[in-house]
């Protein structure tokens, strides 16, 4: 599916690649047993469904060529299994997760810091946390 970036919450001062406006994302799908369709979801992970919003920590994965696996194009990827958080109605943890709507018990997202000291180790990270949702 194609996801749209609403707002970049943080990025290092001079990123090698700026955050995208949209990007493709492989979301969880469905399992079929006869005529029955069942949602597939990772444990404690959002499926990334249309109509919901998410905060994601992303990094650019450059293209690579592996003689055994073939070419893999560059792409935006999550930092790990817990790099995506539901964010419906501006509340972290509220919204779709594991294919079900969660009420959300976390605080609203605080505003991003005005400046991050250049001595902070996070400034060397290629990660760019983003507030995103599936494009219409």
SS-derived structural category: mainly beta
Instruction: Please give the alpha-carbon distance between the first and last residues.
Output: 10 Å
Domain tally:
1
Element order: H for helix, E for strand: EEEEEEEEEEEE
Categorize the overall geometry.
flat
Report the portion of residues in β strands.
35-45%
Q: State the major sheet.
A: 6 strands, antiparallel
> How confident overall, as mean pLDDT?
77
What's the total helix number? 0
* Tally of strands: 12
| Fraction of residues in H or I helices | under 10%
Can you characterise this structure?
The chain has 136 residues and is mostly beta strands. It is 0% helix and 38% strand. It has strands at 2-8, 22-24, 30-33, 36-39, 54-61, 64-66, 70-72, 75-78, 84-86, 95-97, 100-102, 128-134. The strands form four sheets. Strands 1, 2, 5, 8, 9 and 12 form a six-stranded antiparallel beta sheet that branches. The radius of gyration is 17 Å and the shape is flat. The model is unreliable at 115-129 (pLDDT under 50). Residues 116-129 have a biased composition (Low complexity). Residues 61-136 are annotated as: Disordered.
């Amino acid at each position: 599916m194609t996801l749209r970036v609403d707002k970049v919450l943080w990025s290092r001062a001079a990123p090698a690649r700026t955050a995208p406006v949209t990007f493709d994302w492989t979301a969880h799908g469905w399992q079929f047993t006869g005529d029955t369709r069942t949602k597939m979801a990772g444990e404690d992970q959002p499926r990334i469904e249309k109509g919901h919003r998410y905060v994601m920590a992303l990094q650019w994965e450059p293209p690579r060529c592996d003689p055994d696996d073939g070419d893999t194009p560059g792409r935006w990827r999550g930092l790990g299994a817990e790099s995506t958080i539901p964010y419906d109605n501006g509340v972290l943890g509220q919204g779709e997760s594991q294919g079900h709507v969660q009420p959300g018990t976390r605080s609203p997202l605080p505003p991003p810091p005005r400046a991050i000291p250049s001595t902070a180790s996070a400034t060397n990270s290629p990660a760019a946390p983003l507030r995103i949702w599936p494009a219409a």
